[in-house]
Design a protein that fits this description.
Distance between the termini: 16 Å
Strand content: 5-15%
Shape: globular
CATH architecture: 2-Layer Sandwich
Number of domains: 1
CATH class: Alpha Beta
Radius of gyration: 14 Å
Number of helices: 3
Structural class: alpha+beta
Order of helices and strands: HEEHH
Strand order of the largest sheet: 1-2
Number of strands: 2
Helix content: 25-40%
Largest sheet: 2 strands, antiparallel
Length: about 80
Amino acid sequence: MEDVRREISILHHLGDHPNVVELIDAYEGSKHIYIVMELCKGGELFDRMREEGLLDLAARPQPPAHAVADALIAAGYGGAP
């Protein structure tokens, strides 16, 4: 659950950036974390990136969510989490 908390922290830090999905709220129960996010139509970003050849999973073994967070930080859209 610590990874989920980290992702929530990153989304809070990015605020209302126009190119990042909006985090509406997050609720933590005893066993689950519930995340309410902006509705984004148009399919899965991961699938679109893979189809366009933008993901080379063999060269980047980390999970895609961390790859995106790293790219945003490197591009200057957030500080180190």
